[in-house]
Specification:
Blueprint lengths: L8 H15 L9 H13 L5 E2 L5 E6 L2 E11 L4 E7 L5 E6 L4 H4 L3 E5 L5 E8 L20 E5 L6 H7 L6 E4 L4 E2 L4 E4 L2 H19 L6 E8 L16 E7 L2 E3 L10 E7 L2 E2 L2 H13 L4 E5 L6 H7 L5 E10 L5 E4 H14 L2
Length: 350
């Protein structure tokens, strides 16, 4: 089932545009309401009727003829981030990580401190004693959450000064994304995991709506908000669903096959193998459609659909996504990877 050249170009353009919009909304795990409201509104613009889940995610039906063999497509809008854990005597902030944040990847980044009642403040995440002309051991010092700190861009010199601003323990710390798209089609940003894939899911919904396609199977989408801490997909599975398909990033790195321009089909990750029939079906579809794809085993990875299984749901499960380099760092993918992922969704879920 080969596709016509450029048949999907406008949907890929839409995916890239919407991904950039979503990347502009801070949404560390536990602070996702604004991003969820944006996703809900985008589905409504396409003519669907999304609803909030109890946990704050978005659940929407994309239609389908058969209700007893449904497929649930899962993606997540929560990202890595930080939380104020200590206000230090010198007016700097110590943070606790939200999700798999790595201090090495975040040092020197601009941040936004979100208070509960007193607005937002800017700052920078730095290693302690960060001036190279002062600290001769700076280059050799390992970056950890114990020796790194938020330097607030306000005139604060003490814990009391910080508290007067309204900054408290438990406040969210959001890291700048630095999103950009190159002329060659690469998209670079923090938190492409998983906002690029949410863009792809929106593109899939737009494709179905505009082409007046009613899939044979009932298709539901669950945009989750706690994937980065392991329980995003553990609830809100509609009745009749027999398969859960996570659309998340495909890993690019040494020892793996996937590139940023491909769609990745994951056969196994740290949680174990994905359903053989699903992996085989995805591969067969990719071959028939002549897609640029790769199959990989990820050594350090977990997904929403594994949370679905751990919660006790009796479903088959699979994982696909565009190739992403430098995962949980300053990530890079390509519009070709997004388009190949979209095409695989269209071809696999008929």
């Amino acid at each position: 089932m080969a596709t016509k050249k450029n048949e999907f170009k406008k949907y890929t353009d839409y995916i890239m545009d919407k991904s950039v919009e979503l990347l502009g909304i801070d949404s560390p795990t536990g602070y996702t309401d604004e991003a969820a409201a944006w996703v809900k509104k985008e589905f409504e613009k396409l003519g669907y009727k999304p609803e909030y889940t109890g946990k704050g995610g978005i659940l929407v039906s994309l239609g389908g003829k058969k209700k007893n063999n449904g497929v649930l497509v899962e993606g997540h809008i929560d990202t890595l981030g930080g939380m104020v854990s200590t206000i230090k005597p010198n007016g700097r902030l110590k943070i606790a990580q939200l999700g798999g944040l790595d201090a090495h990847n975040m040092v020197t980044e601009n941040v936004r401190i979100v208070t509960k009642f007193d607005g937002d403040y800017e700052g920078t995440y730095q290693i302690e004693n960060a001036s190279l002309h002062v600290n001769g051991e700076l280059r050799d010092t390992k970056r950890t959450f114990d020796n790194c700190e938020v330097v607030i861009d306000e005139d604060v010199k003490s814990k009391e000064d910080v508290e007067k601003l309204g900054i408290k323990v438990g406040d969210i710390v959001c890291f700048e994304t630095k999103t950009r798209i190159t002329k060659s089609g690469y998209i670079k940003s923090r938190f492409l995991d998983d906002k690029l894939s949410v863009g792809i899911i929106l593109g899939y919904a737009k494709y179905l709506k505009e082409n007046k396609i009613t899939p044979d199977r009932a298709v539901y989408v669950h945009i989750t908000v706690y994937e980065e801490v392991g329980h995003g997909g553990c609830a809100s599975v509609p009745e009749g669903v027999t398969e859960a398909l996570s659309v998340d990033m495909g890993c690019v790195g040494e020892g793996l096959n996937c590139t940023e321009r491909q769609v990745s089909i994951c056969s196994k990750d740290a949680g174990g193998p994905y359903a053989y029939s699903v992996v085989k079906g995805l591969m067969e579809t990719a071959e028939k459609m002549k897609l640029d794809y790769a199959v990989d085993v990820y050594p350090h990875y977990g997904s929403d659909v594994e949370a679905t299984l751990h919660a006790g749901y009796d479903v088959r499960h699979g994982l696909i996504g565009p190739g992403v380099y430098a995962s949980h760092g300053y990530e890079r993918s390509h519009r070709d990877g997004a388009e190949n992922t979209l095409k695989l969704l269209v071809g696999y879920i008929k």
